[in-house]
Amino acid sequence: MTALAAVLFDMDGTLVDTEVLWWEATEEVAARLGHRLTRADAPEVVGRAVEDTAAHLVRATGTSDPDGVATALTTAFQRRVDDGAPLRPGADRLLAELARAEMPFALVSASPRSVVDSVVGGALAHVPFALTLSADDTARTKPHPDPYRTAARRLGVPVTACVAVEDSPDGAASADAAGCTVLVVPSLLPVPAGPGRIFADSLEDVSLDGLRRHVRERATGL
């Protein structure tokens, strides 16, 4: 029977309330380019890597400088993160529970390393992550499986014995493709149901015992 070996957390919108900050940063850059951001843009913004959102703004505005747009997005987002990123409800309690139980847990983010380091050095400075991964640490980031596979490999555990905690469609797709059990706690975008996906309204509803049960149930096909 497969036992839970590690918990792999997304960062933006999952542990810290930064998806709103990312939206604001994208809104700012889009306005500079003459594009008014609306809910129709959300699938290309929420939970997406910087390069993906930059490519969307390039398509929407006809600009010819995707690298410049990506840099502007990172700068605008970094400025907001540096001003403070509040924790999501229940995050602190769950992380403390895992630490007390000596259950390995890691941060697996699609944000650039500079942003990850800012959050880990700020709002999450007290959290003993086994490791942190950013978009800069794998050849491909979410929705590809590379980040979660890499995290499991570096932790020395089977990826199928990991629970990934995610809030976005792209993040859930990444964890699914890697082979994780996926716990979805949606933030700004709805996430479709799927095999191996469990849903919670808030991290306040999540416990270590529950995560262990989800892995057992998936392994036994319940």
TrEMBL record:
Q: What's the protein name? A: HAD family hydrolase
User: Origin organism of this chain?
Assistant: Streptomyces litmocidini
User: Per the record's keyword annotation, is Flavoprotein included, yes or no?
Assistant: no
Q: Which superkingdom?
A: Bacteria
NCBIfam families named among the record's database cross-references: HAD-SF-IA-v3 (TIGR01509)
Keyword vocabulary terms for this entry: Hydrolase
**InterPro entries of this UniProt entry?**
HAD-like_sf, HAD-SF_hydro_IA, HAD_2, HAD_sf, PGP-like_dom2
Task: State the Gene Ontology terms under molecular function.
Answer: hydrolase activity
